[in-house]
Amino acid sequence: MVRMGETSGWPDGLAVGATRVGRRCNRYGESVAFYRDVVGLPLVYLGETGPDGFGCAVFGLPGTPATFELVEGLEPVPVDRHEELVLYFRGEAARDVVARRITEAGHEPAHQYRYWELNDGITFLDPDGRELVLAPWVFGEDPPPMRKRSAPPAG
């Protein structure tokens, strides 16, 4: 089992230059506007409806080494709200800037997993009903707040 802070081996010579995670959506136009205008993710590519019949939008997280793509669904797409997009921020102040933008646009925080509640996350639902989690710590760099609070005092 790999524990937090450890990594399993990556094959030598298999260098990955970038990563993109894609998601089909039912409410494409509303979802593009939500992630671009409300959340504030930088839109790095917006594809017109092409020969395959669907549009796509690619957002930087925040640059292009890691991107998030929305693809217009041509038929109804099953939605599991727990298909989360988690944005890890460096502290509560940064998390709160984005949370404030989202609430000022009329979106209320959603019920969330206890894990996110215990780790100071704030969860919203995107236009398709999937979770967007804002966390005030960086996975793999910082211990989650729950661990910090339960750690024995130093000394």
Descriptive account of the structure:
It is a single chain. With about 160 residues, the chain is of the alpha/beta class. The protein folds into two domains: about 20-75, 2,3-Dihydroxybiphenyl 1,2-Dioxygenase, domain 1 (Roll); about 80-145, 2,3-Dihydroxybiphenyl 1,2-Dioxygenase, domain 1, CATH 3.10.180.10. The chain is built from four helices and seven strands. The protein has helices at about 30-40, 90-105, 115-120, 145-150, and strands at about 20-25, 45, 55-60, 65-70, 85-90, 120-125, 130-135. It has a four-stranded mixed β-sheet, with helices on one face. InterPro entries: Glyas_Bleomycin-R_OHBP_Dase, YycE-like_C. This is YycE-like C-terminal domain-containing protein. Pfam families: YycE-like_C.
Name the helicity range: 10-25%
CATH evolutionary superfamily of the largest domain: 2,3-Dihydroxybiphenyl 1,2-Dioxygenase, domain 1
Number of helices: 4
> Into how many domains do the coordinates divide?
2
Write the layout of secondary structure elements.
Elements: E1 19-25, H1 28-39, E2 43-47, E3 56-60, E4 66-72, E5 85-88, H2 92-104, H3 114-118, E6 122-125, E7 131-135, H4 145-150
Parallel strand pairs: 1-4, 5-7
Antiparallel strand pairs: 2-3, 3-4, 6-7
Protein name: YycE-like C-terminal domain-containing protein
Organism: Streptomyces abyssalis
InterPro entries: Glyas_Bleomycin-R_OHBP_Dase (IPR029068), YycE-like_C (IPR058997)
